[in-house]
Amino acid sequence: MKNKCNVFFRGKLIEGTCQETATKALANTLRIDEKKSHLLFSGKKVIIKKNLSCEQGIKIVNHFLKSGLVLECETFFLEEQESNKQSSSPMESIENQRTVDIWYAIKSSIYPHIYISLMLFFAALVFGIEILFSRPQLYLYVNLLILLYTIPVWKALSHGYEAKIDLDSFSFPASDVENSVLDIITLKKLRNMMSRTTIRLSEIRALNNEKSRRASRNLFAGQKGVPRMKDVWLLNISGDFGSQQLEFNSKQKRDECRSMLFTACYKKGNRLRGASDLNLDL
Predict the structure, then answer these.
(1) How many CB atoms sit inside 10 A of residue 259's CB?
(2) How does DSSP assign 143-172, residue by residue?
(3) CB 71 within 8 A of CB 60
(4) Predicted pLDDT at 57
(5) Disulfide engineering: 13 pairs with which of 17, 21, 210, 232, CB 3.0-4.6 Å?
(6) Are 244 and 199 in contact (CB under 8 A)?
(7) Which domains does the chain have, with CATH numbers?
(8) pLDDT confidence of 81, banded at 50, 70, 90?
(9) What is residue 74's three-state secondary structure?
(10) What is the pTM of this model?
(11) Is the confidence at residue 223, as pLDDT, over 80?
(12) Residue 107: CA atoms inside 13 Å, Cβ hemisphere, count?
């Protein structure tokens, strides 16, 4: 049986050490993203290197001490370690859960693009801008320019709804509604679609399902003058941050996101007293 050791880190620094400098040193040595290296300062035991000889472990500890990082060694017998194999990595304590409503992302990216394109086309008709008709290729260039809006919208929506338990965060496509006439005139809702919002899981107090109906974007159905109606599946989230309303393309995706969010809050210690199951049929 040979003596081996694991080197682990609990987020301790030598007094007077700049955490930003220590974080960079840790990120460079472990070859991880600098933003993710901040998670190693949570105070939890994170294994940096394992199955090293005692001499190698001491060298690594001394190397990090020069950067102000206090690492610890844990000695064990090799046979004992092999009998209890546990995979471990610096990022193993990070739990990410994500729900992606890809059809909602596609529709919410394409429809605004078409809407803006048509609005510019009719504006050219009204103001007599004949250059679009003499040079139709310019209309293609205009659509390529609109992609500067469409691509950020697609990136924000296609990433979906993500809960990071260790970071106590829930991120989702921005969905703030208009609060004033100015917001409506300046198309705030369209501008918000280009970004994402993050709230704390521990601040969520209630999850409530909602269903509404709106005119479909498709052509009119059988009855004259009567537009087709479609169901809109909504999830209302309220808490210390105020309230947010998430929209989904289907009931299944809405319920999947609600379940994911409820589970993430529960794991974080947030019991969500306002998350009643009475409206699950909506």
Answers:
(1) 14
(2) HHHHHHHHHHHHHHHHT-EEEETTTTEEEE
(3) yes
(4) 76
(5) 17
(6) yes
(7) 3-83 (3.30.1390.10), 96-216+228-267 (no CATH)
(8) very low
(9) strand
(10) 0.57
(11) no
(12) 11
Scan for tokens 């610890």, then name that residue: 72
Q: Rounded to 5, what percent of the chain is helix, strand, coil? A: 40, 25, 30
Spatial CA neighbour of 44 closest among 133, 166, 135: 166
Q: Measure Cα distances from 94 to 2, 48, 91 in Å.
A: 32, 15, 6
| Token representation of residue 265 | 């809050």
Sheet holding 229-239, edge to edge: 204-215, 229-239, 242-248
The whole-angstrom separation of Cα 54 and Cα 2 is 10
- Burial of 18: CB neighbours in 10 Å, binned 0-12, 13-18, 19+: exposed
* 202/169 Cα distance (integer angstroms): 8
Cβ(79)–Cβ(224) below 8 Å: no
The type of residue at 67 is: S
The tokens 């209890």 sit on which residue?
Answer: 84
User: What is the C-alpha to C-alpha distance for residues 260 and 242, in angstroms, rounded to an integer?
Assistant: 20
Separation of alpha carbons 214 and 230, rounded Å: 6
Distance CA 12, CA 61 (A): 12
Contact 177, 236 (CB under 8 A): no
